[in-house]
Amino acid sequence: MTQSCDSATSEMVQPRRIDSNTAERFRSWPSLPAMFFERAAENRERTFVAGKISGEWKHTRYGEATLRVIDLARRLKDLGIQPGDRVLLASENRPEWGLTDLAIMAAGGITVPTYTTYTATDFEYVLSHSGATGIVISNQTLAKKLLPAIKKNNNLRYICTFNLLPRTLTEDLSIPVESWAQAIHEGDRSGWNVLDDPAGYAEDIMQSVQSLKRSDLACIIYTSGTGGKPKGVMLSHGAMLSNCLGAYDLLLDFGLDHERFLSFLPLSHSYEHTTGLLFPISIGAEIYYAESVETLVSNMAEVKPTIITAVPRLYENIHRRIAQNMNRTAGIKRRLFDKALEIGRKRYETPSDLSFADKALDPLLDALVRAKIARRFGGRLKGFVSGGGPLNYDVGLFFNALGVKLLQGYGQTETAPVISCNPPSRVRIETVGEIFPDVACKIADDGEILIKGELTMEGYWGDPEATAEVLKDGWVHTGDIGILDAQGYLTITDRKKDIIVLSGGDNIAPQRVEGVLALQPAIAQSMVIGDKRPHLVALIVPDMDWVKQWCREAQQEVDLTKLRDQEDFKKAVMQAVTTANQDLSSLEKVKRIAIASDAFTIENGMMTPTLKIRRHMIKERFGSQLEALY
Q1: Domain that holds residue 372
Q2: pTM, full prediction
Q3: Which of 6, 275, 398, 629 is most buried, by CB atoms within 10 Å?
Q4: 279 falls within a domain
């Protein structure tokens, strides 16, 4: 196996752990529905998906899911879906989401997932741009946002709803609206025993599935849009199946066996769609849907997941919560925790510095500290996987030192999405890991990472010009700058579009600076700017727990709109920035700050649904404050 560190093309990376027969199975599945039906037949009594209803987990087994997918696919065909038709799916995470996605594909259609945080204008754009002929909606709130777009659209032939909608919402529509349960009932063929005769029961649907090829489009995923209008990324069945092979190869280090995933990132994002739905199906795993981000830790304790995939923001928040709890702890408990961190860091960074006493104490710390941390996550967790943005090194080191594997990976929607990830047995926190099997990677002359393989997108829907800018001779130009070392590990050094170029010509990656700032207890979020300026300044969102504590001690009202202009408060926040500056180079240091009156959230448009900040939106809102710092 060879890998390229220059502008020459690297050879295809072959599986490192997976046996040839299993690898061939992943490569031979003709489509995602074909994979699902095969795996479901092997695991029909096992839980496929589970969601919490009225305080109890409700389970759908693979065998039952098979029936529902077939019945819904049949009903979609009855309603007029044709091969290649787009169907818009607007829903929060829930068991019906994946079943509907599979049914759309099994009927020959193409799923167009949308975010629940979309505005009415967003829905109108995606509905019109994709040319969808059908819609699946989960609830009344989303229906209200979609109705104006529906009434303007002449392509639509049907609407299906997970929850019944009031007649007042749909009575003036000229197209049929039926519930998900009704659609399944209409597609049901009573009298057949599908488990004994699946081919006979589903002959019409299986003919549709058998006509699908790996090169056919499976979905069009609109980018969450950190700037400008979203683009519809066209992904084939083969692209996501290739990702499933890579994930299987990677996680064999964990000893895959009866895996259970806890899903909470939006399924409308390519990261969760592939790693939280399609990959679990490929290994016959169970998928539980978290109630919310707020209940995630308690859901972990209930569900006892083995694998969790999430974005860096989640791990930063958990790190902050654990650190804050320990800061309020004293005595032997605190000393043991600090010692566990110290030895864990040594074991990773400088194992030669481990003393005899360290080695003797470490097993005891496993039992007294690390086992307790593990129980907070359910007790069966094999590892966290981080993607969707750069993971702060100190956060990664924190978890790995405490015995929780945190694997940083890398990818883009345009690559289905995963390109690389750290293997559990050889974690290198500062990198985004090894390139996935069957993926070619090369570094262009200007340092840009280029990717080629079955995982690459087919292009942007209806946008040949944008396609030509990113997809050249089969290579996806990622827009990221990186280094591929001799061991095959990829390190991201910069993001072309986000690079800040100071007036002196020096380049700075803002995500690194923001990641260091986020480690301070006083700072919840930040955005730095400095393009064509002599130094960096930052907009700071203070941590509200820290704010409340400061206000108690200063006998002040908890009101950021008033506090942000008070010199004592600004000095306290700036002190946290000064502390963070100690871990930054002279060029990266933040010289001055402004304090935001509001947090960056999905609801106010300043974060994407996968918790990345929208820089253009933040500048639009707080630009005058930031410019005043110069």
Answers
A1: 310-456+468-496
A2: 0.85
A3: 275
A4: no
